[in-house]
Design brief:
Shape of chain B: elongated
Distance between the termini of chain B: 45 Å
Strand content of chain B: 25-35%
Oligomer: heterotrimer
Largest interface: A-C, 87 and 86 residues
Radius of gyration of chain C: 28 Å
Helix content of chain C: 55-70%
Number of strands of chain C: 2
CATH architecture of chain C: Orthogonal Bundle
CATH topology of the largest domain in chain B: Rossmann fold
Chains: A mainly alpha (292), B alpha+beta (383), C mainly alpha (308)
Strand order of the largest sheet of chain C: 1-2
Radius of gyration of chain B: 25 Å
Structural class of chain B: alpha+beta
CATH superfamily of the largest domain in chain B: P-loop containing nucleotide triphosphate hydrolases
CATH class of the largest domain in chain B: Alpha Beta
Number of helices of chain B: 9
CATH class of chain C: Mainly Alpha
Order of helices and strands of chain C: HEEHHHHHHHHHHHH
CATH architecture of the largest domain in chain B: 3-Layer(aba) Sandwich
Amino acid sequence: MATQTASPAPISPAPIAKAPLKIRRRSPLAWIGDHILLAATVVIFIFMLLPNAVILVMSFNQPIGKYDYTWNQFSTEAWAHPCANQELCSSMGLSLEIGLIATLVSTALGTMIAFAMVRHRFKARSGINALLFLPMAAPEVVMGATLTALFFNTIGPGSLGFWTITIAHVMFCLSYVVVTIKSRLAGMDPTLERAAQDLYATPTQTFMKVTLPLVAPGIAAAALLAFALSIDDYIITAFTAGQRTTFPMYIFGSVQRSYPAQINVIGSIMLIGTMVIIAVSTVLGRMRATRR
Amino acid sequence: MGSTDVMGRTEGGDLRLVGLTKRFGAFTAVDSIDLTIPQGSFFALLGASGCGKTTTLRMVSGLEDPTAGQIFLGDKDVTDAKPYRRPVNTVFQNYALFPHLDIFENVAFGLRRRGFKSVKPQVEAMLDLVELGHLAKRKPTQLSGGQQQRIALARALINEPQVLLLDEPLGALDLKLRRQMQIELKRIQTEVGLTFVHVTHDQEEAMTMADTIAVMNHGRIEQLGSPAELYENPATTFVANFLGQSNLIPGTVETATDDVVTVSAHGRKLTLDAKRCRSVSGEVILGVRPEKVQLAVSEADVPSGFNALSGTVSDTSFIGVSTQYLVKLPSGEELSVFEQNTGREIQRPGSEVFVHWDPSQGFGLDGAQDIEAGAALDEEGAA
Amino acid sequence: MSTALLDKAPASEAPPEDRKPRRNITPWVLLLPGLLWLILFFLIPILTSVSASVQTGNFDDGFKLTWHWANYADAIKPYWRQYLHSGIFSVATTVLCLALGYPVAYFIAFKGGKWKSLLMALVIVPSFTSFLIRTIAWKTILADNGFVVRVLNDLHILGVTRRLGITVGTHVLASPGAVVCGMVYNFLPFMILPLYTSLEKIDPRLLEAGNDLYCGTFQTWRRITLPLSMPGVIGGTLLTFIPAIGDYINAQLLGNANTGVVGQSIENLFLRKTDGYPVGSAMSVIMMVGTLVLVMLYIRKAGTEDLI
């Protein structure tokens, strides 16, 4: 209620009774609420990563009997002799062979499609989009069964084998390749190609000197994806394989016969190999970006 | 390898557009433009977005095919030539520097495609011209916007094109940097002597840099001339409103002699130079720039011979350099007045004033035109 | 300083002739090889199987088109349990994947910070080892005398699940529960990826605006985040549900004789019976039509450009 004066005289503060400084304490319930998302995420991640850990551990196991399902004792036997089982390794070899060919063909065809879709305008766009989407969404059983039926009908039951598997693999890898490259291509600045033309690069030179270097990482990623899909496919392969046995088919059958620790060894190698490739490419990418 | 046939220097390489047209379906982006740009001049295509200026530029560069018309470089008809066979280079709006090549290779790109084996001396000279020689080994993403812009310029200039096209190259820079670059570009053009064609929506930029400006609107050229001509004597209401601001007063021609046109408007007689009036009978729009107009408190203070209208001040804005008034006429129309702050008294809103100007500063436009043309666009395009 | 640069075209001159536009065949040259491959080995087989589904015969004598529509009855009546199981498993899997995947995707998108890429890599990278080996690893995890089963037993959860029919007897393996567990494990990344993509696009300032306008944590999620993440939810649901319907690996490896699904029957008919291929084709036609209906509904909602 004091009246204000025009030029306030300095006022010394009245001594304030010292109250203890209260630290705000949150109730335990609130702490849980804050962290429940984190907890749930950790638990779910454990759920997702547990089998990989198990595979790694079990590869160092010496199983009792024919199945490497339960822990017995530590042994590096399986790592020392990964191909002790002849059929295992020959099926792996077949899978690699098919994977290589399927990757090359599907990457080549898929790259062409991706370029056509991103760089050109034409009327049948939505129909082609749908056609490319369906193999990713269709149940593998349907694709495998109907393709086999086609081979039965046209060539005969004896036709199933290496080439039918490869044909099927190219078929289902194609869509994934297109999606991967398409997104990389769409992210590329279209002005760059026009700038190259403005600077006297013919269409071929523009493609070789500007477009290709910029899309190459996408093409590599697509090829890797196709390879992974091909190596790991069971259902469609089982239908179209005839007498041949690929690696996944071998594993599937092994549940009936015997499940050696070598399978876990190969599983671990695949995981470690993938992590190494990703780590290397990330490091390379960072190096390229910051190089003087 | 390469296309060196068109690269030979030709004499008198004026850029000529003849009936150049571009249609996208039913929409006409560029409507039969006829234009000659003399060699060595700094030319600006000025207009709001969507007026067709960028499309015109792209047709000159070869990145867009004309629907009709022709493009001549000197005597050569280049209309059908691909962009990589034209002695024309572009500085793109977003610079379009190749992210996977370093600065040296970016600048050398055009030379390499044309088959030059040794490029080092030219590249180094060009980098010195834009004062960025120390960044030769960096990648484009490591450069600032202003530096990228200068590299884009270097990359184009190194090829000594007959025409250099600039597509709103300063749009992404902040104000201070933009002003700096405007001066830089002008200096480089004078030094190098090439024909520059600069596309922009910023009328201040165009007026600062160009020798000649073409104002485009809806695919057509509204007026062509030097910045001073365009500004002091606009030919259409669009140009009058788009370049700076104008007071446009509709009226009727009373008498017209060889020297003077008398117009009646708001119950008064206003005069202007007959040579600056484009319509000598019937409806006419009398225009005068706000900085040419002054305020007087009483009619006695109006110099003799000056045009005068009475009104009330409705708004006063003190800008620092000037004071900007809005004066409301009895009819409801508002006139803008920009008075330089030379120490004169500032009139408050509500004061009764007489706006007056020297008749020789006014211009006359065809009365049938839309008085609002180009007005709103100017706000969008203002820097 | 101006020169007469603006040439006036004489009024009587006719407008210059329009130039002919260039026709572009390049896109079709690029598209055709790949499209032909898909048409030949994806589209046509599906169409062929319709005809195959009404044939009769066997491997030794050959197959003839006899319009034997009874194949469809043969494809449904004895296998109704398999259809039921496929349906229940897929629905359960999709719901669980959504329930588990959404929190993870949300966490990575909003709280991931600079660890986002690493976390997403952790989600996806395990999928790059053979999924068969990974699924079989569950046989170890859920083994009868293993850690998990013992804990569940001690907590008396096993008794509850047994009563609900989720597990069988004293073990977790060889039961519907194990099958769904395996399926959820396999399909979780397919749910998380689209959800993450969609959530990551949400501008966090929208959530701040929600808080400013009186939304609490839950309300913010319900009124702002959830609707904006719907494209991801729909995409993830479809990318999980449709493959799940056809999946039979999990049922084979982790189930028992009573958890049979449609895929196993189709494989059986095709590969292990000499005269089963028409009925097998009929089953695939049925499965395919069902899938197509769902995909059409999705396309209607989301359009085709975002598909791939």
